[in-house]
Amino acid sequence: MDRRKFFEKSLLATGGLILAPIYVSCDNDDLPIVGIPDLVTDNFFEGVASFDPTSSSVIIWTRFTPVSKLMSKTSPVSGITLNWQVALDSSFKSVVRSGEIGVFEESDYTVAIDVQDLPSNKRFYYRFFNIDTKTSSVVGETITLPDTADTVDNIKMAVCSCANYAAGLFNAYGAMANSDVDVIVHLGDYIYEYGEGEYGTNENTVPLDRVHTPANEILSLEDYRTRYKQYRSDKQLQLAHQKKPFICVWDDHEVTNDAYKDGAENHQESEGSYEARKQRAIQVYSEYLPVRTTDPYKIYRSFDFGSILSLHMLDTRIIGRDKQISYNDFFDFTTGQLDGDAFQTALLNPDRTLLGMQQKQWLSNAISGNNSRWQVLGQQVLMGKMFMPSEVLILLGQVVAEIGAAGSVSQETALRFQTSLAQLTEIKTRLIAGDVTLTTEEITRVRTVLPYNLDAWDGYFTEREQLFAMLNGKKMVCLAGDTHNAWHNTLKNANGDEVGVEFATSSVTSPGFESFAGLQADQVAGFEFSLKTLIDDLQYTDASRRGYLKVTFTESTAQGQWVFIDTIAQENYTETIGSTVSYS
Fold it and tell me: For residue 481, which of 425, 568, 549 has the smallest C-alpha distance?
């Protein structure tokens, strides 16, 4: 079939916007490539990548820049054909698959090929090249997943999220690229939508040449494409994509901050239709982070790693989420009181959903008949119950508000927060030890708790209980991102029964508690100790470091290991292990 016609027939159109196709290549339609000239590495400025490996297939990706980096936006280039090869060796002497593919302006000159009919549990090398320009991409490495018939001792995943370009260097991606993990699971906030000088900007942004482009908050199709190209220009992100296959879901910043199905905190009426903006964002996501799905709006899907685990990637952000409730909706600023009854009614509303009915039914079906040893949920937001004393939560809110408004917290507010935190930690420690001298007032102070983050599963209480019921009797590990900090939570249902464990990753660069809570370096350890003491199901947290999570699964154990890098302000970095825990 003519490649141009094939492209047109493959387009998925939604709301008048075109979504990038994924070309399916089976072993009976390969095109042998002969007479390959000497090639130089050029024109593939965004590198290569692979996505969504299965036991018999993997998506390979690249972007080709016609002529030069300075290609005119008003003069599209047509008639470009790329060749591709997949081999068992990096020198391409043992080519197992090959073909050619057209490159078109409509998908920003990106291409994605779903190479099928591959043997399971193998390592492959792949490349793209253009014979006309005699230019080639770098050589990528990827894998197919094990089948149930393959003998596999373990599966190793790197889990990451929240990479703000302006906040610092992507050293964590470099660390993942050089690790021994099999795949990288990216839980969202791959890009950030903010403009120059906005969130993430710090004293290193300009010296490191990390200023966001375009300078404005991204809204148009070209804006989103420019931002992805900027992120993909980062050499360490390119290396991670070159060395490891990615399994991705979006969070909010791929569209805009605190998104839900009908809107977002960071979208105003003056910025046009939110639905149109979301469609443009998803179109560009499909161009740069292809997902194997029949509907690009529905990126929830499962991956089987032999008999050891099934990974269920969820969308807790865009497709089904009802708008987040806010404490501000129930707080009387004149009296300083929270309308507790109204808040509880909203929080426990059985009709509020994070997943949406279709996704929830899909997940139930995926889990119910699954015989893998581990059921693993790859999703964006914290699932653990992060309930902390309302007294300290209110003071923390004041700290965050002052920093947001003035760039720093007043000495008075900081002192009140630190004093309250210390007092409550001491009371809770004594309560855990069974101190009978505690007063009723003291016990009330630590037992009057509220959920810390209503943007997470804590704000969707009923549906979380429904999900826990689905997993009854299964060995479950929940993976989470979003918060920019590391967490290890024991997951318990409303009856207090343990249903699984949560491993949540720190961010690649985005600032965490150390920034928005105004913590000084000598305050971090005490703050972490207080959180572990005050939050019942919290086992571990790191409130200040950037990095990634390494999870190793065997038939008997799931081990979480938090890997941190010591700087995002310079290229030379050192890795350290923050904590290692095993769950069986």
Answer: 549
